[in-house]
Specification:
By secondary structure, the chain is of the alpha/beta class. The protein contains 17 helices and 11 strands. The chain is 45% helix and 13% strand. The N and C termini lie far apart (74 Å).
Length: 529
Amino acid sequence: MSEEQKKALEKQLWAIANLLRGKMDPDDYRNYILGFIFFKYLSEKLHLYANRILEPDKLKYEQIEENTKEGALYIEAIQKACIKNLGYFLKPAELFTSIANKGYNLTEVETNDNHEATQFFIIEDLERILNNIEQSTMGTDSENDFVRLFEDLDLTSSKLGRTLKAKNELIAKILAYLNQIDFQLENVESDVLGDAYEYLIGQFAESGGKKAGEFYTPQEVSRILAKIVTSRKKRIKSVYDPTCGSGSLLLRVAKEVEDVGYFYGQELNRTTFNLARMNMILHDVHFSKFDIKQEDTLEEPQHLELQAEAIVANPPFSAKWSAKNIFSSDDRFSQYGKLAPKSKADFAFVQHMVHHLDESGIMATVLPHGVLFRGAAEGHIRKYLIEDQNYIDAIIGLPANIFFGTSIPTCILVIKKCREIDEDVLFIDASKEFEKQGNKNRLLPEHINKITNCYTTREEIEKFSYRAKLEEIKENDYNLNIPRYVDTFEEEEPVDIDAVMKEIKSLEAERAELDKEIAGYFQELGLKF
């Protein structure tokens, strides 16, 4: 997609968002817009698939008369094929275009008392169709990926309008706008819909304030994490994100390699969990290739036997967790001899990820800088990872103010289990690698390339990177604070004292002259200076 096409698409999408702006906050209208886009995708995907099946009969899916005996036989055959290969089913009358056209026609008709009753059918139809999509998956392999997927799309909410008529008209307008957008699903080289979805998620995150960081990692940071865990690889057997949010990080990894065998994720927030499943399906990840679970990762881990080749994560910074005594015997934490403190779960997430990392795998996670130098239990865990296991491969300091919802500087912790005994730890200080754009700092492609190339080559660059021997880290009492290893001190230019004194004397002489001039004005006015 060209830059011009991309901008035109973004303009169309924001025209839809503007229909809901002012009626509700970004968290709410995000759910409606992304939910309707997802319905459009499912519909068009199935429509194209059904038409391919019907090609030998020279039929189009929308032409089938569902109520005839012949039509029923066609529907039954297509349903079986769709459930097996797509994981869900829609009848011809349930396709997005059918319901969008119906809604559009209703909004064009003059409303009167008799017509008002029919105005409600688009909402009723839409509710029934969305429910039918879920029902079509019951008892099949795709059931877990579709169950309660549309629960945040509340078509009866008063936020859509005070009356049924007002709600109906607004929904009809949204569907009509969306119906005009061509997501080019037939073009296998294009990912217009996926790009549109990612764009909207990013825009909602940017306007979502503090909550945004709960479900979205800026794409620039995602690229760095993805490039690190896929370095020198063309295929990844499995990738895991224990705090997957909208799933964007998992999908970013897929863009860096030719193939990902399986995607695993876990997310606490129910709405965001639904968003992640939609995001996977929208990016054409088959239902048989991903397993996203909804539960608290630390308290109720869901992928107990998982050993992932790649792990990426952006856990909530310094979140609270229970740190119950029972976790001391949990396989994820028991070998360390200490649990992460209740008030800061950062290392609990690290321990969880290390436990699920394959022996030949790489993990890269975003963390607050405190994990590099805080003492007590965290210092103990850090020492164990370095001295006992030699797992820490690199520390990368990122610029401040690049995340949504927080301006604090962060770092990327890179862990590998297959390091050499005497292999050094790479420190990268990328805190100055950004461009200020508005009220945020942005990592540009050149910044991303500089960071990832340095990680791959492990090159030492003055004031940017340094390879520290384990002995040196031990001497620093296992403190990993980046300024201890990367010297970014900029020597100031020497000051010419004689020139400064000369300038001071000149300024004093100028001031004396001004005092004289002002004293003259005061004298003329008969005032004391």
